[in-house]
C-alpha cells in the first residue's frame, strides 16, 4: 500500500510500460486467441444450428422416402394445405432407409416410408410406433382388408398398424416389345434370354431383391424365397452373376420406365404391373409389355411409418392424413405412379370416372384388393449377413 | 537514426530466445517464482508470444477428437462381431479371419490396389507432358493463365464432373455416337461403355488438375538452363529427361500419384455411377457393410485394412522417392525452343478437359424432357425450374451454412496454428504439423465411417453439426498448410520492428503478419469453401436428415436424372468460372497497382525489370 499513488505510478512507470509493451499484451494476446477460438467454435455451432432444426421445428415434418413420395409437388401441396413445411429426404431402398434410421438417425426423422415386409424389422428394433388408425381420419376410407387382416405383416391388430397402407402392387417382368419378343408362358428366366444383349437387363431395388428374382427363376418357392441359405442361395447368386453387367434402378420406377422405353434396357423387373401403361403413355404407342411370371412374383404394400419419439408427431399424423386422404393428392399419386391404391374411396373414384384410366386401374386389380392377400411381400432376408456376403461376391467377382 | 529494420535484425540476438520474446515483466517474474511445475509452465508459456505452443492446440485438439478418437473406435469395432445388426462387445478376430478366408474381399482389395495404381499412374503419365510444357515452355507471365485454365475444372463440383462423363459413355453416349458418325465404328465399342475403362478415363479426368499442380510445381523449380547445358554437352533430349527433369520432378510425380491413389481408393461414388455392376471397387464393399446388412464390425475391419494398406504404400513410396537434392536456383526461366508436339498435346488435353462440361452447358439449353442428346431445341426454362425447386434451394442453403461454418473455424484455428508452427522448430513443430495434416492422407470414406461409428458408440445424435465437424477436419489442414507456406516466406523482421516501435504482439500480428499472410489466408479460405461446398464422400456418411447440394446431386444421379440437373451444372460451372476470373482480375489489378507504385518511387528514367 502506498500513500503516494502518483509516485507509485511514476515508479512503476517503466515497468508498467514494459509490461504493457510485452508481458501484459502477451497475456492479452493469448487470452484473445483463446477467446477467438471459443468464439469461432460458438459461431460454427451457431451457424450449424441455424439450419439444424433436425425436425424439431413446430411447423415442420421430416419425411424419408423413395423419391416419388418426396416429390416437390407433394411438399408444395402439403404446405399450401396445412402451412406445415415438409422436408423430404429421398432414399434409395428399404435397406437404405432402415440403415439410416438404425444408425442413429431416429431423432432426425418424423416419418419413414417402407414396404410392409420391412415394417416388423423396424418395429422389433423399436424404431417406429404402431399407428392407431383412429388418429388418422383418412383411415375410414381404406379398404377394410388393409387395416383388419392380421395376416398382413404390418397389421398389429385390427385398426392398429405399423405402417399406414398407401399403395400396393405386384412385381412383373417388363420388356420392350420392339426389341424382343417374349412368348407365354412368361418366366423370370427370360431375363437370362441369350437374345438380350449383355447389359440390357434392368433391376430395381437392392441386392436382396435381385437375389430373390434369381431364386424365383431357379424355382425356389415364393413363400421361402427370403429363407434361401447355403448352396441354394449360392446357386441364386451364381445365376445372378451370369447376368452381369446389369443395370440398377435404385428406387425410381421412372428410371426403369425410361430405360425400357428408350431401349437402353430391353427387359427387367418392374415393381408394378402398371409400369407398361406408364411407358406406353409416354411413348404414345405400345413399346412395352408386362406380365406376371409363372413362378409367381413378390409384391408389396407401402406406406408411411411413424418414427418412435418423432419430434413433430402431430405434424407427422397430419402429413399421413393429407397424403392418404386428400382427394387431389390421391389422384396425383395414382397418375404419377399407376399403383393400386389402398384407399377404397380413391379406388372407387378412379373406377367411376369410366375413362381409360379406369380400365387400366381395373386391369391392375385395383377394384379387387383381396389380390393383395395372396402376395408374398418383399422383405428382408432371414440371414442378411449371408445374403450380403453372396451379393458382395456377385458384384465384386 | 537507426532504421527499425536494423534494430529488429539485432533484436533476436539480444533477447536470445524466440523472435518475439521479451525481458520478463513483474508479473512474469511472479509467475516464475511459483515453485509448482504447472506454475513454471504457465509462466514460461506467457513468455512465448506468437511462439506460444498453445496456439496450435485448438486445431490439434479438433483433429485429435474428430479424427483419432473415431479412428480408435473404428479399430476397436473391427474386433467386435455384429449379430442381428447390433455390435456385440465380444473380442474376436472373426472379422479379420473372414476377410482372409473369403477371397471376395482380399482379392477385391488387391485388385482395387492394382486397378487404382494403374489409373493413378496413367493420370500422372498423361499429366506430365502438359505440366512440363506449362512449366518450361510457356513464358512466365503467361503461366498463370495456363495454370488457371488447367485447374478451373477442379473448382467445379466433383459430382457434376462425373455427371458430365455419364453423358459421354454408353451406347448412346457422345463418344460412341461420334465414332459412329465419323465412320470409325459401325456399332458402340466397349471401351466407352459403362465399364472399368470408363472409370479409368473418368478418374484421370477428375484428378488431372490435382496431379498437374503437384507436377507443375516440382518442374517449375527446375532451372531450364540445365537442360540447355546438358544439350550443349551432347545429351540427347531423352537423356536430359531421364537424368535431369524426371529426378527433379520425382517428388511432384510421387505426390501426384499418392493424392490420385488415395482419392480413387476412397471414392465409392464414381465406380458405382460410371461402372455400374462392373465397377465395384473395395470401397464399395466397405459401404455395403454399412448400408444393407448393418455389418458394422466387418465394415470396420475392411476400413482398417484399407488404412493399413495405404499406410504401407505411403511408406514404400516415401522410401522409393527418397529426397530430392536442391538442383539450381528457381529462376522463372523458360526454354525458348519451340515444342510443337508438346503444344499440340497440351491443346488436346484442354479439349479433353473442357468437352464434358461444354456438353453439360449445351444440354442445359436442350428443350427435351430427357436429360441427354439429341438436341431438340433451345430453351432456358430448366434454369427457372432450378430456382423454383424448393428441395434444391434448401440443399444449396444447407451447403452454404456448412461451408461458411467450416471456413470460419478452419481459417481462424488454422491461422493461429500456422502462426506458431511457422516460428517453431524441432519435434513440437513436427508433431503439430503432422497431427493437423494427417487427415489429408486418409481416404474420406474411412474418415466418414470412423466418425459415424464414433458417434454411434458415444450415443451422439447426428445432425448438421456433424457435417460441419467432418468438413472442418478436412479443410483445417488445407488452410493451415496454405497459411503456413505464406508465413514461412515472410520477412519476420517487420514484425520485430513493429514490436520495437511499441506495438503489442497482438497489434503486430494483425497489422503486419495478417496483411502479409492475407493471400494465403484468402486462398486457404477459398479452397476450404470450395472443398466444403463440393464434399460428398464424407457428407453422405455423417449427415443426419440434412441434405447438402452434393447430396441432392448424388440423389438425382442415383435415383433420377432430370434436365434441371444440367441447368444446375451449368450454373455451378458459370459461378466457378466467374469467381476464378474475378480472383485473377483482382490479383492482376493489385499487381499492376504495386508495380505502378514501385515505378513512381524510382528516380526518373529508371524502369522496373519486366
Summarize the structure.
Chain A is 44% helix and 16% strand. By secondary structure, chain A is α/β, with parallel strands linked by helices.
In CATH terms, the superfamily of the largest domain in chain A is Periplasmic binding protein-like II
Please state the CA-atom Rg of chain B, rounded to the nearest Å. Answer: 27 Å
CATH superfamily of the domain at 51-77 and 383-541 in chain B: MetI-like
Radius of gyration based on Cα positions of chain A: 29 Å
Beta fraction of the residues of chain A? 15-25%
For the biggest sheet of chain A, the summary is:
8 strands, mixed
Query: So how many helices of chain B?
Result: 26
Q: pLDDT average of chain B, as an integer?
A: 82
What can you tell me about this protein's structure?
The complex is a heterodimer of chains A (397) and B (610). Chain A is of the alpha/beta class. Chain A has 2 domains: 60-168 and 300-366, D-Maltodextrin-Binding Protein, domain 2 (3-Layer(aba) Sandwich); 172-296 and 379-396, Periplasmic binding protein-like II (D-Maltodextrin-Binding Protein, domain 2, 3-Layer(aba) Sandwich), CATH 3.40.190. In chain A, 44% of the residues lie in helices and 16% in strands. Chain A has helices at residues 5-11, 13-50, 72-82, 94-105, 119-124, 144-148, 207-217, 230-242, 253-262, 275-283, 313-325, 327-337, 344-352, 356-363, 384-396; strands spanning 60-65, 85-90, 111-115, 128-129, 131-132, 155-157, 160-161, 167-170, 172-176, 201-204, 247-249, 267-270, 288-291, 298-307, 340-341, 376-377. In chain A, helix 3 (72-82) crosses helix 11, helix 8 packs parallel to helix 15 (384-396) and helix 13 crosses helix 14 (356-363). The longest helix of chain A has 38 residues, at 13-50. The model of chain A is unreliable at 1-26 and 45-57 (pLDDT under 50). Chain B has 26 helices and 2 strands. In chain B, helix 4 crosses helix 20, helix 18 (390-423) packs across helix 25 and helix 21 (464-488) crosses helix 23. The longest helix of chain B is centred in the last third of the chain and has 39 residues, at 563-601. Classes of the chains: A alpha/beta (397), B mainly alpha (610). Chains A and B meet through helix 2, helix 3, strand 2, helix 4 and helix 9 of A and helix 2, helix 3, helix 6, helix 14 and helix 18 of B.
Amino acid at each position: 500500500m502506498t500513500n503516494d499513488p502518483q509516485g507509485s505510478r511514476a515508479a512503476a512507470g517503466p515497468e508498467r510500460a514494459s509490461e504493457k509493451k510485452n508481458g501484459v499484451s502477451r497475456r492479452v494476446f493469448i487470452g484473445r486467441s483463446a477467446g477467438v477460438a471459443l468464439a469461432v467454435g460458438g459461431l460454427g455451432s451457431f451457424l450449424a444450428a441455424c439450419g439444424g432444426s433436425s425436425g424439431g421445428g413446430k411447423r415442420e415434418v421430416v419425411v424419408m422416402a423413395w423419391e416419388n413420395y418426396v416429390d416437390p409437388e407433394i411438399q408444395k401441396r402439403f404446405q399450401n394445405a396445412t402451412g406445415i413445411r415438409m422436408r423430404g429426404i429421398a432414399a434409395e431402398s428399404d435397406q437404405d432407409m432402415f440403415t439410416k434410421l438404425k444408425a442413429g438417425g431416429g431423432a432426425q426423422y418424423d416419418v419413414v416410408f417402407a414396404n410392409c415386409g420391412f415394417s416388423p424389422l423396424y418395429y422389433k428394433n423399436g424404431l417406429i410406433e404402431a399407428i392407431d388408425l383412429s388418429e388418422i381420419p383418412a383411415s375410414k376410407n381404406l379398404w377394410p382388408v388393409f387395416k383388419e387382416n392380421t395376416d398382413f405383416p404390418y397389421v398389429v391388430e385390427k385398426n392398429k398398424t405399423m405402417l399406414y397402407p398407401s399403395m400396393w402392387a405386384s412385381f412383373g417382368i417388363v420388356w420392350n416389345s420392339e426389341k424382343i419378343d417374349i412368348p407365354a408362358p412368361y418366366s423370370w428366366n427370360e431375363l437370362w434370354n441369350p437374345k438380350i444383349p449383355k447389359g440390357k437387363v434392368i433391376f430395381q431395388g437392392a441386392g436382396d431383391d435381385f437375389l430373390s428374382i434369381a431364386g424365383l427363376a431357379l424355382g425356389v418357392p415364393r413363400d421361402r424365397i427370403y429363407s434361401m441359405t447355403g448352396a441354394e442361395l449360392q446357386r441364386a447368386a451364381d445365376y445372378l452373376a451370369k447376368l452381369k453387367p446389369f443395370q440398377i434402378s435404385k428406387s425410381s420406377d421412372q428410371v426403369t420406365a425410361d430405360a425400357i422405353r428408350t431401349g437402353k434396357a430391353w427387359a427387367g423387373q418392374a415393381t408394378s404391373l402398371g409400369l407398361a401403361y406408364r411407358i406406353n403413355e409416354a411413348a404414345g404407342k405400345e413399346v412395352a409389355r408386362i406380365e406376371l411370371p409363372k413362378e409367381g412374383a413378390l409384391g408389396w404394400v407401402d406406406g408411411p411409418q411413424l418414427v418412435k419419439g418423432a419430434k413433430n408427431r402431430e405434424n407427422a399424423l397430419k402429413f399421413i392424413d393429407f397424403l392418404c386422404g386428400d382427394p387431389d393428392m390421391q389422384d396425383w399419386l395414382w397418375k404419377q405412379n399407376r399403383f393400386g391404391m389402398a384407399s377404397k374411396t380413391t379406388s372407387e373414384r378412379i373406377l367411376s370416372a369410366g375413362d381409360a384410366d379406369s380400365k387400366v386401374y381395373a386391369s391392375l386389380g385395383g377394384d379387387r384388393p383381396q389380390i393383395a392377400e395372396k402376395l408374398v411381400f418383399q422383405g428382408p432376408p432371414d440371414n442378411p449377413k449371408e445374403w450380403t456376403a453372396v451379393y458382395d461376391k456377385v458384384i465384386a467377382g | 537514426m537507426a532504421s527499425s529494420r536494423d534494430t529488429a535484425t539485432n533484436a533476436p540476438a539480444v533477447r536470445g530466445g524466440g523472435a518475439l520474446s521479451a525481458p520478463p515483466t513483474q508479473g512474469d517474474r511472479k509467475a516464475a517464482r511459483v515453485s509448482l511445475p504447472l506454475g513454471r509452465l504457465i509462466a514460461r508459456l506467457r513468455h512465448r508470444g506468437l511462439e506460444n505452443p498453445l496456439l496450435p492446440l485448438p486445431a490439434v485438439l479438433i483433429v485429435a477428437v474428430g479424427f483419432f478418437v473415431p479412428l480408435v473406435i473404428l479399430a476397436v469395432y473391427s474386433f467386435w462381431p455384429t449379430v442381428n445388426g447390433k455390435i456385440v462387445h465380444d473380442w474376436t478376430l472373426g472379422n479379420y479371419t473372414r476377410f482372409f478366408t473369403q477371397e471376395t474381399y482380399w482379392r477385391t482389395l488387391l485388385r482395387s490396389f492394382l486397378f487404382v495404381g494403374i489409373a493413378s499412374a496413367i493420370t500422372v503419365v498423361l499429366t506430365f507432358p502438359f505440366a512440363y510444357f506449362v512449366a518450361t515452355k510457356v513464358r512466365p507471365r503467361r503461366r498463370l493463365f495456363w495454370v488457371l485454365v488447367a485447374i478451373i475444372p477442379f473448382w467445379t463440383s466433383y459430382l457434376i464432373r462425373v455427371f458430365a462423363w455419364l453423358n459421354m459413355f454408353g451406347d448412346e453416349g457422345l463418344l460412341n455416337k461420334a465414332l459412329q458418325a465419323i465412320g470409325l465404328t459401325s456399332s458402340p465399342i466397349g471401351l466407352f461403355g459403362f465399364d472399368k475403362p470408363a472409370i479409368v478415363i473418368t478418374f484421370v479426368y477428375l484428378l488431372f488438375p490435382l496431379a498437374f499442380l503437384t507436377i507443375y510445381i516440382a518442374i517449375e523449380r527446375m532451372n531450364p538452363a540445365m537442360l540447355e547445358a546438358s544439350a550443349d554437352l551432347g545429351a540427347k533430349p531423352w537423356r536430359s529427361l531421364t537424368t535431369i527433369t524426371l529426378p527433379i520432378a520425382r517428388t511432384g510425380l510421387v505426390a501426384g500419384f499418392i493424392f490420385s491413389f488415395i482419392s480413387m481408393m476412397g471414392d465409392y461414388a464414381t465406380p458405382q455411377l460410371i461402372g455400374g455392376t462392373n465397377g465395384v471397387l473395395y470401397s464399395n464393399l466397405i459401404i455395403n457393410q454399412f448400408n444393407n446388412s448393418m455389418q458394422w464390425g466387418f465394415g470396420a475391419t475392411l476400413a482398417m485394412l484399407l488404412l493399413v494398406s495405404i499406410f504401407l504404400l505411403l511408406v514404400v513410396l516415401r522410401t522409393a522417392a527418397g529426397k530430392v537434392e536442391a538442383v539450381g536456383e528457381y529462376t522463372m526461366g523458360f526454354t525458348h525452343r519451340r515444342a510443337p508436339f508438346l503444344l499440340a498435346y497440351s491443346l488436346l488435353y484442354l479439349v479433353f478437359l473442357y468437352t464434358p462440361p461444354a456438353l453439360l452447358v449445351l444440354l442445359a439449353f436442350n428443350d427435351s424432357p430427357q436429360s441427354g442428346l439429341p438436341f431438340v431445341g433451345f430453351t432456358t426454362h430448366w434454369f427457372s425450374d432450378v430456382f423454383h425447386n424448393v428441395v434444391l434451394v434448401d440443399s444449396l442453403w444447407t451447403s452454404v451454412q456448412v461451408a461458411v461454418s467450416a471456413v470460419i473455424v478452419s481459417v481462424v484455428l488454422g491461422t493461429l496454428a500456422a502462426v506458431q508452427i511457422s516460428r517453431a522448430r524441432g519435434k513440437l513443430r513436427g508433431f503439430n504439423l503432422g497431427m493437423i495434416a494427417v487427415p489429408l492422407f486418409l481416404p474420406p470414406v474411412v474418415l466418414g465411417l470412423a466418425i459415424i461409428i464414433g458417434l454411434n458408440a458415444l450415443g451422439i445424435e447426428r445432425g448438421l453439426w456433424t457435417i460441419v465437424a467432418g468438413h472442418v477436419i478436412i479443410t483445417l489442414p488445407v488452410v493451415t498448410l496454405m497459411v503456413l507456406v505464406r508465413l514461412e516466406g515472410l520477412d519476420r523482421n517487420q514484425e520485430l520492428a513493429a514490436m520495437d516501435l511499441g506495438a503489442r504482439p497482438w497489434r503486430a500480428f494483425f497489422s503486419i503478419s495478417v496483411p502479409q499472410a492475407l493471400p494465403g489466408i484468402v486462398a486457404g479460405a477459398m479452397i476450404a469453401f470450395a472443398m466444403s461446398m463440393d464434399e460428398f464422400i464424407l457428407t453422405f456418411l455423417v449427415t443426419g436428415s440434412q441434405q447438402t447440394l452434393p447430396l441432392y446431386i448424388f440423389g438425382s444421379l442415383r435415383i433420377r436424372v432430370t434436365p434441371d440437373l444440367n441447368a444446375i451444372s451449368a450454373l455451378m460451372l458459370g459461378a466457378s468460372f466467374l469467381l476464378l476470373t474475378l480472383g485473377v482480375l483482382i490479383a492482376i489489378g493489385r499487381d499492376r497497382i504495386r508495380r505502378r507504385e514501385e515505378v513512381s518511387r524510382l528516380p526518373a528514367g529508371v524502369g522496373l525489370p519486366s
